[in-house]
Design brief:
Chains A, B: It holds the Pfam family Fer4. The structure is a homodimer. With about 375 residues, chain A is of the alpha/beta class. Chain A contains eight helices and 20 strands. At the A-B interface, helix 6 and helix 8 of A face helix 6 and helix 8 of B.
């Protein structure tokens, strides 16, 4: 995609103003200084090897470290690093420039500044994604208080071969868990946080259960309200996880505690929940607790909505033009949207919607002209 | 859509042969004789009024009647009727022709014959839809044996203002139900029939519950395994139905019977099921039972797959090129698919996918040329 002749990628950039109307939008984009000349950099990685400064790796949800000059995540497109001024010794103390010294193509450029670029476009697709719910406010789950209560995203990095542990599922002390509990609907289907269902958690929770069993052989428990395996092949995967011996407990978790009531619970995290099928409270002692956290609108959704004159639905996501017949349109002609900025959705549904949004934009362009009287943005 | 200058609709037609490859498909289409000249008919409806012959209305799942000359469903595009030879007196007995006599534009043409048309197309989108599961084999549910055990599709017609009762929800004897049970997962999530989840039944069952409460005030029970309210606004609708007083019973239904064990059960249909939350068997006497039947691949899926060289997944639906990154593609370049022929899905997801498939076809055409070496169909 990065090398397609009709696609111009502007990464590390941000839209700062939009005006005009369908067919004729003017978009101001801030290209942030990355201090690396994109035309010279070959992505060889020498600068990152030589950089002596470190910071928390955001992509690994701070579970690992990265350098002050770094590529944000594996397989980034384009494969060009950026200097993080807040952790770079040259920006902080005025000396180092190790990256510059070792760069074989002379691509490091400490003189770069942010630039404002203006482009004219016929249509716009908003695909700003989502944030994940921070489970800290649900204090009874102990996130932040117990080392081995982690979020599903943290688990995702833990199990990834490019993650901080090289794909080993381990507890904070480095040991292998012998049991794990996966708690569904953390922040979803909860009137105190988000009333909506986040649509993807059941399936990634099943995947996580399968990965734990496969990689560690640990006993796995899933505490759920409803198993929502609605997509193609999903119910079949649920059955497979069940056949693999994953324990399904239907019920809402009351709390996670380390106060043991028996010998067997000592040194464990105890998940206390109502088993609605048994009809009573149960205590499940485990080594690791994974919280399947909700998807939520991005923190900057308000700002982005204002910038593009979008409306938002009651759940905070961007509002589609018509729920059934125009799920990729917005109230502004020529502005479309795709993916989780419109609401939680999984990869196949996101890809279908994204192709759809591209189709709408393409149809508009091939048409060659647009009707007058369209809504105007930012003027 | 019917009047768009770049769209040629061929209704009442059937693809009979496909050959060629991406960019150059030859498609043979059988245009079935409708015995009405499309260029002359204005859709005034006089022929249907005057026709003295009736047949079961397939669109109303045989709950109502239609004439021998008829428009298959309300808002059909184009709004032009067709003569059903199997019920037309002229075709059966050689006389009548009332439609011809009364047609103000002379559009009736008994001399029409089936025609084979050949078209050249660059790409093809397969969107053949689905069939609904016939619940008769699940004999314990009593479909076909008890008048007031109906399918969700029959209920859909019953509640429609264009349906056989004008939108009145009534029992077979014409009276209003005072209670109804909606049984989920009939033919879905069932190893004896379809292992997969049909994705849409939970939500239409909630809609049906809401409609019954609103239109009749009846007591409504839903027997479900998991409530799968995954889409935008779906969980909120579930909560609303719950607030309206719909009774949710988590459990698989064992049988529907008319053998009363108490005074209160007399004259009722009794739904016998395990309430997995209470942990025991319960008996729910109701007036009407609605079976939320599965979506399944069309009966002619094998034939269509052969015609277009499509593959089928284990569930019998057509196989997409890649589940995540190409959900609208097939193994044959230039042939795409959309909607339920690929797997059960609801309207927003179908529309997104359909726009996506159109985009793929459009992208191919605007490209102007295709790479050599593509897979060939039917040669």
């Amino acid at each position: 995609m990065g090398s397609h002749k009709y696609i111009e990628l502007m990464t590390y950039s941000e839209v700062v103003a939009v005006s005009g109307h369908v067919g004729h939008f003017k978009v101001k984009i801030k290209k942030k200084a990355r201090y690396v000349d994109e035309t010279k950099c070959t992505g060889c990685g020498t600068c990152q090897e030589k950089c002596p400064w470190q910071a928390d790796n955001e992509f690994d949800v701070s579970l690992g470290k990265r350098k002050a000059i770094y590529t944000p995540f594996p397989q980034a497109v384009p494969n060009i690093p950026v200097i993080d001024c807040e952790h770079c010794a040259y920006f902080l103390k005025g000396k180092c420039r190790a990256c510059e010294k070792f760069c074989p193509t002379g691509a490091i450029d400490f003189e770069q500044t942010d630039q404002i670029v203006e482009v004219q476009v016929a249509s716009i697709i908003v695909a700003t994604g989502y944030d994940i719910f921070d489970p800290s406010p649900i204090t009874q789950y102990g996130y932040g208080r117990f080392d081995d209560v982690i979020t599903s995203l943290e688990f995702e990095r833990l199990v990834s071969s490019t993650g901080p542990t090289g794909g080993n599922i381990v507890l904070k002390d480095g040991s292998k868990p012998q049991s794990a509990a996966i708690i569904h609907c953390v922040g979803s289907r909860d009137e105190n946080y988000h009333e909506y269902c986040s649509r993807v958690c059941c399936m990634y929770s099943l995947k996580h259960a399968h990965q734990i069993k496969e990689k560690t052989g640990a006993e796995v428990y899933q505490m759920y309200i409803d198993m929502r395996c609605f997509g193609k092949g999903y119910e079949e995967f649920y059955k497979r996880a069940s056949d693999e011996g994953v324990n399904f407990i239907r019920g809402k978790v009351a709390k996670v505690t380390d106060i043991a009531l028996s010998e067997e619970e000592k040194g464990k995290l105890i998940v206390v929940c109502e088993d609605t099928l048994l009809g009573n409270m149960i205590r499940v002692p485990v080594d690791m607790v994974i919280l399947s956290v909700a998807m939520e609108p991005r923190a900057d959704a308000d700002e982005v909505a204002r910038l593009f004159s979008l409306e938002r639905s009651a759940d905070g996501f961007f509002l589609e033009k018509h729920h059934k017949i125009d799920p990729v349109g917005t109230m502004i002609d020529g502005i479309y949207m795709a993916g989780c900025c419109q609401g939680p959705k999984d990869i196949p549904d996101t890809v279908s919607q994204a192709i759809g949004a591209a189709a709408k934009a393409l149809a508009l362009i091939t048409k060659g002209k647009v009707e007058a009287g369209a809504a105007v943005v930012g003027e």
